[in-house]
# Entry
Amino acid sequence: MKKISFSKVDINKKDTKVISDILLSGWLTHGKYTTKFENSFKLFTKSKYSITVSNCTAGLHLIFLALGIKKNDEVIVPAMSHVASAHSASYTGAKVKFCDVNKVDGNINLDQIKKNISYKTKAVVVVHMAGSPVKDVKEISNYCRKKKIYLIEDCAHALGTKINSKHVGNFGDASSFSFYPTKQITTGEGGIVITNNYKIFEKIRRLKAFGINNDINKRKMPGKYDVLDLGFNYRMTDFQAALGYFQIKRYKSNLKKRRMNAKLYEKSLNGLKNVFFEKYNINNSYFIFQIFVDRDKRDQIVKKFQKLNIGCSIHYAKPINEYKFYKKDKTKKFDNAKFYADSNISLPTHSSLKPMEIELICKKIKELT
# Structure
């Protein structure tokens, strides 16, 4: 059987020619494509400010630092996410407090947040799992504002995800996006932070580059600058930014195909007794199409797909609180997050996927369930 890839990068010959030109120029950082990518991303998400970073986790870390999150502060994080959602808060010395999620979409909800709020709570992280929007993020935002708690959006899966025509990432104080190779667009490694708050933008802009007060292009004399903060080296290279720039310019077409693929999955898998999934949502960017099966069947299907060369994955196989590093905190079990972890299978949705490949994937699922 011909291999069906789980993900496929949207990079063409024109992109690689530009990358080659940048590499040969010797000007590999602080270049024009970093600015172009940031500006294009602002336009796409309709945010006021955007800052390229070395990866999404670095972006989240910078957000926590810019908001002043520190040791012994509490940060509420959904138990179902990539460990980066929790690690980025833990880097600051803050205590991560996990909460349960919805059973089907894997997203946090306001009731769970309210159950876990304490006088030490300084921030809440919402994760738009698998590209599915957190449905009550507006209510969560209003609640956090009233409580004077920061809201951070982890948008690693959510490029193109919207709620009432508003792009996710614009509901909280700041948000971070991922451009890892399996994501909707890629820069190899890389990420972008967006915010509508100038003070947060300025702080992150400095922190990502050692805390230096001005960019290399704005210095009157080379090598002369001041250092205002204990910053990091969390920058993106210009050739990475060029990759992101060209992909975001054509991403609307990519997104349209992903949604078409999701519709094909739904049409083919509808009515199966032992397979369920979230109903098609036009606001979902479909980083992946997730199905849920009986716990004893999930690993069996994934192993069979590996033998058949059908790309699939699991997002994620454990709630974060069950990893050894976080288990030491003696956090309680979360039924919905545990169910999600034991039952989910992530299916490909990338724009190069063919209808006949989706048909074959669905045929095998029907046979195996």
The chain is about 40% helix and 15% strand.
